[in-house]
Design a protein that fits this description.
By secondary structure, the chain is of the alpha+beta class. The protein contains eight helices and seven strands. It has a four-stranded antiparallel sheet. The chain has a three-stranded antiparallel sheet with strand order 5-6-7, with helices on one face.
Amino acid sequence: MTVGAYDNRPERESALTQNVYFVEDQRWPSRSQRFSWLMAIGVVVFIIFELNLLAFEPLAGSGILLVLLGMSLVAITVQQRLSVRIGRDLDALPGQLVVQRFWRRAVQAAPVEFEELDLRPAPAALRIVYISKGPLAALSPGRRGSRLGRRDCHIPMDEIENWSVGSLPRFVWLRRARASVFPVGAQRDAVVVVLKSGEKLMIPSQIPATFIEALSAAKVDSLKKEQVRPVIREEI
């Protein structure tokens, strides 16, 4: 499981200057987990052939092999990924910074008469990207994109009302249809984010304290930007 965040003070200060408050990426299962699952299945298949179950008990041996084949398919294809990011909307858009860089170079080379792109800092937002993949996506490659279970939530800080530390319920995988829960493996520590509409988002995290600290910093900065209004001076 890969996790990245800004924990210590120097890195956190540099992150705040770059308007990126928090980044965390969780994946399940890991490569070592997949390898151990496949090794266990391989050992069971070896034992079956050593005991000659297919010769003495063909029905039982065939049934066990079918079950192991299904388990192998699940071990190879199952995948869950959760990416959480708190930062500016402008940074979250793919390719936006590249477009701005080329635009500046083009304006310097050949000045144009029309107005330049609006490069003002965008407000901070919470972005959640959740991807859930299973055997169904592998068995139907023609409709793979629609069966991945991808959910992309883009929530401005203005819509976030409150947050607290919580835990995911047991057997959360039975509630995967709920759009407000993002289960990743056996991770139960989570941050509960309450929106103005009353909806609660349960986001698992390996570092909930850092997550909450980043939410507080982003919320405070967004409120400061709302209160500060530009002063327009008119000369007579």
